[in-house]
Amino acid sequence: MNMRIFLFILLIGSVAVKAQTINDNECFEHFEVQKIPKAIKHEIKVTYKHRFVMVNPDKNFQETDVKGGRKLKERRLVFWSNCDGVFILVYEHGGFGYHKHVITFKKEDGSYVIKKNISVGDAKTLNEVRKALNENDRLRLDDF
């Protein structure tokens, strides 16, 4: 297994993200929100300027806009992967107009940056998502 250690400190205002190991050849699906690398979580926070919270695939989430009972998170992880230098995050977004997001990140100048944020319909596996990403960019979603 080819392991690369990327040592960087990303300074944005007073926020610093510590370096961590991200293996560019992990071409398999991961199913734990807690294991998404901090550098990726930080890029989402900086880019979209609001709290980005999702639950693991086995947890309940707010699938529709119908509210009731306890408040649930509006996003649920489908999976994440880091394959061939592209980090892929796939999640369900509930509330009004349920849909699936795929966000891709690529390393530029030592930091991960968001390259695409699209919907890929009903893709559920890494192979389905990669195929959809290669075929088109039919819908860009920046509303997450």
Annotation, overall tally of beta strands: 9
Biggest beta sheet summary: 5 strands, antiparallel
Distance between the ends:
34 Å
Give, in spatial order, the strands making up the sheet with the most strands.
Answer: 5-6-7-8-9
Quaternary organisation of the protein chains:
single chain
- The arrangement of helices and strands along the chain is EEEEEHEEEEH
Number of domains: 1
Number of helices: 2
Helix content: 10-25%
Low-confidence stretches: 1-22, 138-144
The chain-level mean pLDDT equals: 76
Q: What coarse outline follows from CA principal-axis ratios?
A: globular
Rg over CA atoms, rounded to whole Å, is: 15 Å
Give the percentage of residues in beta strands.
35-45%
Sheet/helix structural class? alpha+beta
Word description of this protein:
- The chain has 144 residues and is α+β, with helices and mostly antiparallel strands.
- It has one domain (25-135).
- Helix content is 15%, strand content 35%.
- It contains 2 helices and 9 strands.
- It has helices at residues 38-48, 126-135; strands at 5-6, 10-12, 15-17, 20-21, 25-30, 75-83, 86-93, 99-108, 111-118.
- The strands form 3 sheets. Strands 5-6-7-8-9 form a 5-stranded antiparallel beta sheet, covered by helices on one side. Strands 1-4 form a two-stranded antiparallel sheet. Strands 2-3 form a two-stranded antiparallel sheet.
- Strand 2 (10-12) and strand 3 (15-17) form a beta hairpin.
- The radius of gyration is 15 Å and the shape is globular.
- Residues 1-22 and 138-144 have low confidence and may be disordered.
